[in-house]
Amino acid sequence: xxxxxxxxxxxxxxxxxxxxxxxxxxxxxxxxxxxxxxxxxxxxxxxxxxxxxxxxxxxxxxxxxxxxxxxxxxxxxxxxxxxxxxxxxxxxxxxxxxxxxxxxxxxxxxxxxxxxxxxxxxxxxxxxxxxxxxxxxxxxxxxxxxxxxxxxxxxxxxxxxxxxxxxxxxxxxxxxxxxxxxxxxxxxxxxxxxxxxxxxxxxxxxxxxxxxxxxxxxxxxxxxxxxxxxxxxxxxxxxxxxxxxxxxxxxxxxxx
Length: 256
Fold this sequence. Notes:
- Helices cover 31% and strands 23% of the residues.
- The chain is of the alpha/beta class and 256 residues long.
- The chain folds into two domains: 15-79 and 225-255, ATPase, nucleotide binding domain (Nucleotidyltransferase, domain 5); 82-221, no CATH class.
- The radius of gyration is 22 Å and the shape is elongated.
C-alpha cells in the first residue's frame, strides 16, 4: 500500500503520529513524509496526563501543526475502573430491578471458597432508583412509562453530588422507547449531568450484564470527557488541524 502525504500551507513536513500513555512513560511513534519511522519517550504525568503527551511530542521535535493523522491510546478509563476513581454514579432502572447489580450472577471466581465476597457494586443502593413502566421481551409495552417521579429523583441525586447517571430499563434491547424517553427527560431537567442509556452501549439481553456495562460507561464518562477535551484543546492551540482518534478496547479507533 502506498501512503500519500499532503503538504501543509506553511510547507511543514507532514507526519502521522501515534501516542500512548503508560504507567511510567508516554510513548510516541511517527511516520514522516519520506517514510521514516521515529520514536520518542517522556515521563507520564499522572495528575495531568495531557502534559505527558505534549512533552513527548516536544521530545520528538514535532509540532502538532505537522500532523495529518493523530491516534492516541490511554489507560485512563480502565485505571479509573480498577482503582475505583470514577465519577459518582447513579442508576435509573425499571420498577423491581433496583438490586440487579447487587444480585449479579450465581457463578463466582473461587467456587469452593466459603469466604468469597462479591465486589461492591459501582452504584450503592441509595443511588439506584426505579421508574414505573414495562416493555416485555417482545418489545411490546405492557405498562406505560411514568416519569412523574423523575424530577424528585434527580433532585436527590443532585443533593448527593452525583456526576453521572446510567439508565437501564427491562427489555430495552428489544424496544428502547422507554429508555430513550428517560434519557431525554434527564437531559432536559439536568443538562450538566453525564447520562448514558443501555441502548447506546449494548442492546443485548441479560439484565445484569447490560446494567453493569451501562453503569461502567457512565462511571468513566466525565473523566474521559475532561481528559480528551483538555488534550484536543492543547493540540489544536498548538496548530493541529487533523481529526484526532482514540484507541478503543476492541483495538479499533474512533473519533474523539
